[in-house]
Design goal:
Layout: E1 37-39, E2 44-47, E3 54-56, E4 61-71, E5 74-77, E6 80-82, E7 88-91, E8 101-109, E9 115-124, E10 130-131, E11 133-136, E12 141-143, E13 149-153, H1 160-165, E14 167-172, E15 177-182, E16 186-191, E17 200-206, E18 211-213, E19 216-218, E20 221-228, E21 232-237, E22 242-247, E23 250-256, E24 269-272, E25 275-283, E26 299-308, E27 315-319, E28 336-339, H2 349-355, E29 362-366, H3 386-390
Parallel strand pairs: 2-9, 10-19, 12-20, 21-29, 27-28
Antiparallel strand pairs: 1-3, 3-7, 4-5, 4-8, 6-7, 8-9, 11-13, 13-16, 14-17, 15-16, 17-20, 18-19, 21-22, 22-23, 24-29, 25-26, 26-27
Protein backbone atom coordinates (compact mmCIF):
# COMPACT_ATOMS: atom_id res chain seq x y z
CA UNK A 1 0.00 0.00 0.00
CA UNK A 2 1.37 3.47 -0.89
CA UNK A 3 0.16 6.90 0.09
CA UNK A 4 0.61 8.16 -3.47
CA UNK A 5 -0.16 11.76 -4.26
CA UNK A 6 -0.75 12.89 -0.69
CA UNK A 7 0.76 16.32 -0.11
CA UNK A 8 1.48 18.10 3.16
CA UNK A 9 4.09 20.08 5.14
CA UNK A 10 5.65 20.45 8.55
CA UNK A 11 6.77 22.94 11.13
CA UNK A 12 7.10 23.01 14.87
CA UNK A 13 9.59 20.99 16.88
CA UNK A 14 8.67 21.13 20.53
CA UNK A 15 5.60 20.68 22.68
CA UNK A 16 4.61 23.61 24.84
CA UNK A 17 1.69 25.84 25.73
CA UNK A 18 2.82 29.44 25.43
CA UNK A 19 2.49 32.36 23.10
CA UNK A 20 0.65 32.99 19.86
CA UNK A 21 1.41 34.37 16.37
CA UNK A 22 -0.40 34.08 13.08
CA UNK A 23 0.70 30.91 11.21
CA UNK A 24 -0.05 30.72 7.53
CA UNK A 25 -3.48 32.34 7.76
CA UNK A 26 -4.70 29.97 10.48
CA UNK A 27 -5.84 32.88 12.62
CA UNK A 28 -4.06 34.19 15.67
CA UNK A 29 -4.11 31.71 18.57
CA UNK A 30 -4.52 32.97 22.12
CA UNK A 31 -1.88 35.39 23.38
CA UNK A 32 0.47 34.24 26.15
CA UNK A 33 -1.73 35.67 28.90
CA UNK A 34 -4.74 33.81 27.51
CA UNK A 35 -3.24 30.33 27.24
CA UNK A 36 -3.70 27.33 29.49
CA UNK A 37 -2.05 28.00 32.84
CA UNK A 38 -0.62 25.05 34.72
CA UNK A 39 1.00 25.02 38.14
CA UNK A 40 3.59 23.80 39.06
CA UNK A 41 5.64 25.23 36.19
CA UNK A 42 6.72 23.07 33.27
CA UNK A 43 10.06 21.42 33.99
CA UNK A 44 9.81 22.16 37.70
CA UNK A 45 12.02 20.08 40.01
CA UNK A 46 11.79 19.47 43.73
CA UNK A 47 8.13 20.52 43.85
CA UNK A 48 6.89 20.22 47.42
CA UNK A 49 3.86 17.99 48.14
CA UNK A 50 1.87 20.90 49.51
CA UNK A 51 2.50 23.20 46.53
CA UNK A 52 -0.62 21.92 44.79
CA UNK A 53 -1.54 21.18 41.19
CA UNK A 54 -3.97 23.25 39.15
CA UNK A 55 -4.93 23.75 35.51
CA UNK A 56 -6.93 26.83 34.56
CA UNK A 57 -7.91 29.14 31.74
CA UNK A 58 -8.95 32.78 32.15
CA UNK A 59 -11.77 32.41 29.60
CA UNK A 60 -13.45 29.81 27.41
CA UNK A 61 -13.42 26.32 28.91
CA UNK A 62 -11.20 23.34 29.57
CA UNK A 63 -12.14 20.55 27.20
CA UNK A 64 -10.02 17.79 28.75
CA UNK A 65 -7.31 17.36 31.40
CA UNK A 66 -5.22 14.22 31.80
CA UNK A 67 -2.67 13.95 34.59
CA UNK A 68 -0.42 10.92 35.05
CA UNK A 69 1.89 10.14 37.98
CA UNK A 70 5.05 8.06 37.46
CA UNK A 71 6.55 6.64 40.63
CA UNK A 72 8.98 3.71 40.87
CA UNK A 73 8.32 2.89 37.19
CA UNK A 74 4.59 2.60 37.93
CA UNK A 75 2.18 4.73 35.91
CA UNK A 76 -1.13 5.76 37.47
CA UNK A 77 -3.77 8.31 36.43
CA UNK A 78 -4.48 11.19 38.79
CA UNK A 79 -8.25 11.67 39.21
CA UNK A 80 -9.51 15.22 39.38
CA UNK A 81 -12.50 17.46 38.94
CA UNK A 82 -13.45 20.39 36.73
CA UNK A 83 -15.04 23.47 38.23
CA UNK A 84 -18.69 24.11 37.39
CA UNK A 85 -17.69 26.78 34.86
CA UNK A 86 -14.96 24.49 33.38
CA UNK A 87 -12.35 27.21 33.92
CA UNK A 88 -10.19 25.16 36.28
CA UNK A 89 -9.23 21.62 37.22
CA UNK A 90 -7.79 20.29 40.46
CA UNK A 91 -6.80 16.78 41.59
CA UNK A 92 -8.94 14.93 44.10
CA UNK A 93 -5.91 14.29 46.30
CA UNK A 94 -4.78 17.41 48.13
CA UNK A 95 -1.06 16.61 48.17
CA UNK A 96 1.40 15.53 45.52
CA UNK A 97 3.43 12.36 46.00
CA UNK A 98 7.08 12.46 47.03
CA UNK A 99 9.78 11.39 44.56
CA UNK A 100 7.41 11.25 41.59
CA UNK A 101 7.19 12.58 38.05
CA UNK A 102 3.93 14.09 36.78
CA UNK A 103 2.75 14.83 33.24
CA UNK A 104 -0.16 17.13 32.45
CA UNK A 105 -2.03 17.19 29.13
CA UNK A 106 -4.74 19.81 28.80
CA UNK A 107 -6.92 20.88 25.87
CA UNK A 108 -9.02 24.04 26.01
CA UNK A 109 -11.34 26.12 23.82
CA UNK A 110 -11.22 29.90 23.98
CA UNK A 111 -14.23 32.17 23.64
CA UNK A 112 -13.99 31.96 19.84
CA UNK A 113 -13.96 28.18 19.75
CA UNK A 114 -10.24 27.94 18.97
CA UNK A 115 -8.58 24.87 20.43
CA UNK A 116 -5.26 25.00 22.32
CA UNK A 117 -3.27 22.17 23.86
CA UNK A 118 -0.51 22.10 26.42
CA UNK A 119 1.80 19.35 27.71
CA UNK A 120 3.92 19.89 30.82
CA UNK A 121 5.99 17.79 33.21
CA UNK A 122 7.42 18.30 36.68
CA UNK A 123 9.06 16.22 39.41
CA UNK A 124 8.43 16.36 43.14
CA UNK A 125 10.72 16.64 46.11
CA UNK A 126 13.07 13.78 46.98
CA UNK A 127 13.93 13.69 50.71
CA UNK A 128 17.37 14.98 51.65
CA UNK A 129 20.22 12.47 51.51
CA UNK A 130 18.20 10.21 49.21
CA UNK A 131 18.18 9.62 45.44
CA UNK A 132 15.91 7.80 43.01
CA UNK A 133 16.05 6.86 39.35
CA UNK A 134 13.16 7.89 37.10
CA UNK A 135 12.77 4.83 34.89
CA UNK A 136 11.86 4.38 31.22
CA UNK A 137 9.82 2.48 30.04
CA UNK A 138 6.83 2.03 32.32
CA UNK A 139 5.89 -1.09 34.23
CA UNK A 140 3.85 -3.63 32.22
CA UNK A 141 4.11 -1.58 29.04
CA UNK A 142 4.37 -3.02 25.53
CA UNK A 143 7.10 -1.27 23.56
CA UNK A 144 8.84 -1.28 20.19
CA UNK A 145 12.02 -3.21 19.53
CA UNK A 146 14.20 -0.09 19.86
CA UNK A 147 13.35 0.62 23.50
CA UNK A 148 16.33 1.43 25.75
CA UNK A 149 16.03 1.09 29.52
CA UNK A 150 16.96 4.49 30.93
CA UNK A 151 17.36 5.70 34.51
CA UNK A 152 17.45 9.46 35.05
CA UNK A 153 18.70 10.05 38.60
CA UNK A 154 17.39 12.79 40.85
CA UNK A 155 20.93 13.59 42.00
CA UNK A 156 24.41 13.37 40.52
CA UNK A 157 25.86 9.91 41.10
CA UNK A 158 29.51 9.78 42.20
CA UNK A 159 29.71 6.11 43.16
CA UNK A 160 28.65 4.88 39.75
CA UNK A 161 29.95 1.33 40.04
CA UNK A 162 27.98 0.72 43.24
CA UNK A 163 24.78 2.07 41.70
CA UNK A 164 25.33 0.14 38.47
CA UNK A 165 25.73 -3.13 40.41
CA UNK A 166 22.41 -2.44 42.15
CA UNK A 167 20.49 -2.37 38.84
CA UNK A 168 19.87 -5.63 37.02
CA UNK A 169 18.25 -5.91 33.57
CA UNK A 170 17.47 -9.39 32.23
CA UNK A 171 15.50 -10.79 29.31
CA UNK A 172 13.64 -13.91 28.27
CA UNK A 173 14.74 -15.26 25.86
CA UNK A 174 18.20 -14.38 27.24
CA UNK A 175 20.35 -11.77 25.50
CA UNK A 176 23.45 -9.85 26.58
CA UNK A 177 22.43 -6.47 28.01
CA UNK A 178 25.04 -3.88 28.91
CA UNK A 179 24.97 -0.51 30.72
CA UNK A 180 26.31 2.88 29.65
CA UNK A 181 26.62 6.04 31.74
CA UNK A 182 25.92 9.48 30.28
CA UNK A 183 27.59 11.70 32.83
CA UNK A 184 26.69 11.11 36.46
CA UNK A 185 22.96 11.56 36.11
CA UNK A 186 21.83 8.93 33.62
CA UNK A 187 22.34 5.19 33.17
CA UNK A 188 21.01 3.35 30.07
CA UNK A 189 20.84 -0.37 29.24
CA UNK A 190 20.44 -2.07 25.86
CA UNK A 191 21.42 -5.22 23.94
CA UNK A 192 23.81 -5.11 20.99
CA UNK A 193 20.95 -5.18 18.49
CA UNK A 194 17.26 -4.37 18.69
CA UNK A 195 15.19 -6.61 20.97
CA UNK A 196 13.45 -9.60 19.41
CA UNK A 197 9.64 -9.32 19.30
CA UNK A 198 8.02 -11.09 22.23
CA UNK A 199 10.97 -10.60 24.59
CA UNK A 200 10.05 -10.16 28.26
CA UNK A 201 12.39 -7.73 30.05
CA UNK A 202 12.75 -7.48 33.82
CA UNK A 203 14.38 -4.51 35.56
CA UNK A 204 15.34 -4.84 39.22
CA UNK A 205 16.18 -1.69 41.16
CA UNK A 206 18.01 -2.60 44.38
CA UNK A 207 19.00 0.95 45.18
CA UNK A 208 17.71 1.23 48.72
CA UNK A 209 20.56 2.23 51.04
CA UNK A 210 23.14 2.12 48.22
CA UNK A 211 25.45 5.12 48.61
CA UNK A 212 25.31 7.03 45.32
CA UNK A 213 27.34 9.99 46.58
CA UNK A 214 28.94 10.81 49.96
CA UNK A 215 26.09 10.64 52.49
CA UNK A 216 23.38 10.22 49.78
CA UNK A 217 21.58 6.87 49.66
CA UNK A 218 19.12 5.20 47.31
CA UNK A 219 15.41 5.00 48.09
CA UNK A 220 14.03 2.35 45.69
CA UNK A 221 13.70 -1.41 45.97
CA UNK A 222 11.37 -2.78 43.33
CA UNK A 223 11.11 -4.80 40.15
CA UNK A 224 9.22 -3.95 36.98
CA UNK A 225 8.73 -5.63 33.62
CA UNK A 226 7.86 -4.75 30.05
CA UNK A 227 7.16 -6.65 26.85
CA UNK A 228 8.66 -6.08 23.42
CA UNK A 229 5.91 -6.03 20.80
CA UNK A 230 6.07 -6.44 17.04
CA UNK A 231 9.02 -5.10 15.08
CA UNK A 232 8.40 -1.79 13.29
CA UNK A 233 11.12 0.50 11.93
CA UNK A 234 10.74 3.50 9.64
CA UNK A 235 13.34 4.99 7.31
CA UNK A 236 13.06 8.72 6.53
CA UNK A 237 14.94 9.83 3.43
CA UNK A 238 15.23 13.61 3.77
CA UNK A 239 16.52 14.01 0.20
CA UNK A 240 13.71 12.00 -1.40
CA UNK A 241 11.03 13.34 0.98
CA UNK A 242 9.76 9.83 1.77
CA UNK A 243 9.37 7.50 4.76
CA UNK A 244 9.37 3.72 4.36
CA UNK A 245 7.48 1.89 7.11
CA UNK A 246 8.50 -1.74 7.64
CA UNK A 247 6.78 -4.28 9.89
CA UNK A 248 8.75 -7.44 10.68
CA UNK A 249 11.05 -6.55 7.78
CA UNK A 250 8.26 -6.27 5.21
CA UNK A 251 7.47 -2.92 3.56
CA UNK A 252 4.02 -1.73 4.66
CA UNK A 253 3.94 1.60 2.87
CA UNK A 254 5.97 4.53 1.59
CA UNK A 255 4.70 7.88 2.83
CA UNK A 256 5.58 11.33 1.43
CA UNK A 257 7.11 13.54 4.15
CA UNK A 258 8.72 16.88 4.70
CA UNK A 259 11.84 17.24 6.84
CA UNK A 260 13.98 20.15 8.05
CA UNK A 261 14.46 23.12 5.76
CA UNK A 262 18.02 23.95 4.55
CA UNK A 263 18.69 26.28 7.50
CA UNK A 264 16.95 24.08 10.10
CA UNK A 265 17.83 20.56 9.04
CA UNK A 266 16.75 17.29 10.68
CA UNK A 267 19.26 15.13 12.58
CA UNK A 268 20.49 12.02 10.82
CA UNK A 269 20.58 8.73 12.66
CA UNK A 270 18.38 6.38 14.62
CA UNK A 271 15.84 7.89 16.99
CA UNK A 272 13.31 6.17 19.24
CA UNK A 273 9.71 7.22 19.88
CA UNK A 274 9.58 8.20 23.56
CA UNK A 275 6.23 9.97 23.79
CA UNK A 276 2.96 9.97 21.82
CA UNK A 277 0.56 12.93 22.02
CA UNK A 278 -2.72 13.02 20.12
CA UNK A 279 -2.56 16.82 20.13
CA UNK A 280 -0.05 19.31 21.51
CA UNK A 281 1.18 22.85 21.13
CA UNK A 282 4.50 23.64 19.46
CA UNK A 283 6.26 26.95 20.03
CA UNK A 284 9.60 27.73 18.41
CA UNK A 285 10.66 30.05 21.22
CA UNK A 286 11.13 27.06 23.53
CA UNK A 287 13.91 25.61 21.35
CA UNK A 288 15.64 28.81 20.29
CA UNK A 289 13.69 29.71 17.13
CA UNK A 290 12.87 33.29 18.11
CA UNK A 291 12.16 36.52 16.28
CA UNK A 292 13.79 39.78 17.33
CA UNK A 293 10.74 40.62 19.46
CA UNK A 294 11.19 37.37 21.41
CA UNK A 295 8.19 35.58 19.93
CA UNK A 296 8.67 32.18 18.38
CA UNK A 297 9.16 31.83 14.65
CA UNK A 298 6.14 29.52 14.80
CA UNK A 299 3.44 28.79 17.36
CA UNK A 300 0.90 26.14 16.45
CA UNK A 301 -1.69 25.48 19.17
CA UNK A 302 -3.05 22.11 18.04
CA UNK A 303 -0.41 19.95 16.32
CA UNK A 304 -2.00 16.50 15.83
CA UNK A 305 -0.44 13.03 16.16
CA UNK A 306 2.86 14.21 17.69
CA UNK A 307 5.54 11.60 18.46
CA UNK A 308 8.67 12.76 20.28
CA UNK A 309 12.00 11.52 18.87
CA UNK A 310 14.58 13.55 20.84
CA UNK A 311 14.79 15.44 24.12
CA UNK A 312 15.89 18.52 22.19
CA UNK A 313 12.52 18.78 20.45
CA UNK A 314 12.52 16.66 17.28
CA UNK A 315 9.07 15.23 16.60
CA UNK A 316 7.40 13.21 13.90
CA UNK A 317 3.94 14.78 13.69
CA UNK A 318 0.85 15.48 11.66
CA UNK A 319 0.63 18.68 9.61
CA UNK A 320 -2.39 20.50 8.16
CA UNK A 321 -0.96 23.96 7.46
CA UNK A 322 1.51 23.40 4.59
CA UNK A 323 -0.36 21.20 2.08
CA UNK A 324 2.01 21.70 -0.85
CA UNK A 325 5.28 20.55 0.76
CA UNK A 326 4.81 16.83 1.21
CA UNK A 327 6.89 14.67 -1.07
CA UNK A 328 8.29 17.82 -2.71
CA UNK A 329 10.35 19.96 -0.38
CA UNK A 330 11.65 20.25 3.18
CA UNK A 331 10.15 23.14 5.12
CA UNK A 332 10.15 22.25 8.83
CA UNK A 333 12.30 23.47 11.71
CA UNK A 334 13.84 20.01 12.09
CA UNK A 335 10.82 17.79 12.59
CA UNK A 336 9.48 15.14 10.24
CA UNK A 337 5.94 15.89 9.10
CA UNK A 338 3.14 13.74 7.70
CA UNK A 339 -0.04 14.97 6.02
CA UNK A 340 -2.95 15.45 8.39
CA UNK A 341 -6.10 17.52 8.89
CA UNK A 342 -6.98 20.02 11.61
CA UNK A 343 -8.02 18.06 14.65
CA UNK A 344 -6.21 14.96 13.40
CA UNK A 345 -7.66 12.43 10.99
CA UNK A 346 -7.59 8.65 11.34
CA UNK A 347 -7.50 8.10 7.56
CA UNK A 348 -4.57 10.46 6.89
CA UNK A 349 -0.93 9.31 6.69
CA UNK A 350 -0.25 10.86 10.12
CA UNK A 351 -3.28 9.22 11.71
CA UNK A 352 -2.53 5.89 10.05
CA UNK A 353 1.07 5.92 11.31
CA UNK A 354 0.16 7.11 14.82
CA UNK A 355 -2.41 4.32 15.25
CA UNK A 356 0.17 1.69 14.26
CA UNK A 357 3.07 2.97 16.36
CA UNK A 358 4.42 2.17 19.82
CA UNK A 359 6.72 3.98 22.21
CA UNK A 360 10.04 2.29 21.49
CA UNK A 361 9.67 2.15 17.70
CA UNK A 362 12.70 3.29 15.70
CA UNK A 363 12.67 6.12 13.15
CA UNK A 364 15.94 6.47 11.23
CA UNK A 365 16.76 9.57 9.17
CA UNK A 366 19.22 9.45 6.26
CA UNK A 367 20.50 11.91 3.62
CA UNK A 368 19.86 15.00 5.73
CA UNK A 369 22.53 17.71 5.66
CA UNK A 370 23.00 17.59 9.41
CA UNK A 371 25.06 15.70 11.98
CA UNK A 372 24.07 12.40 13.55
CA UNK A 373 21.86 12.71 16.62
CA UNK A 374 23.76 12.43 19.91
CA UNK A 375 23.42 9.10 21.77
CA UNK A 376 22.06 10.85 24.87
CA UNK A 377 19.54 12.99 22.98
CA UNK A 378 16.40 11.02 23.73
CA UNK A 379 17.04 7.29 23.43
CA UNK A 380 19.71 7.75 20.77
CA UNK A 381 22.03 5.06 22.09
CA UNK A 382 21.63 2.94 18.94
CA UNK A 383 23.90 5.46 17.19
CA UNK A 384 26.84 4.27 19.31
CA UNK A 385 28.88 1.20 18.40
CA UNK A 386 28.72 -1.81 20.72
CA UNK A 387 32.38 -1.57 21.78
CA UNK A 388 32.02 2.09 22.70
CA UNK A 389 28.71 1.39 24.43
CA UNK A 390 30.24 -1.30 26.66
CA UNK A 391 33.14 1.00 27.51
CA UNK A 392 30.61 3.29 29.24
CA UNK A 393 30.16 0.88 32.13
CA UNK A 394 31.56 1.95 35.52
CA UNK A 395 32.19 -1.67 36.53
CA UNK A 396 35.57 -2.76 35.16
Amino acid sequence: MTWAGLLAGAAGCTADGTGGIDIGGLGKPPAPEDTIRITPDDGGKGVRPGDGLQVRVPSGRLESVKVVKYQDAQESPVPGRLSVDALSWEPEEEKLALAAKYTVDAVALDGHGRRSARHTTFTTYVPEERFIGYATPENRSTVGTGMIVSLDFSREIEHRAAVERAVQVSAEPPVEIRPHWFGGGRLDFRPERYWKPGTQVTVSLRLRDVEGAPGVYGLQYRTFTFTVGRSQASLVDAARHTMEVRRDGELLTTVPITAGAPKTTTYNGRMVVTEMLEVTRMNGATVGFKKKNGNGEYDIPDVPHAMRLTDSGTFLHGNYWAPDAFGRTNVSHGCVGLRDVKGGGSDTPAGWFFDRSLVGDVVEVVHSKDKKVAPDNGLGGWNMGWKEWKAGSAVK
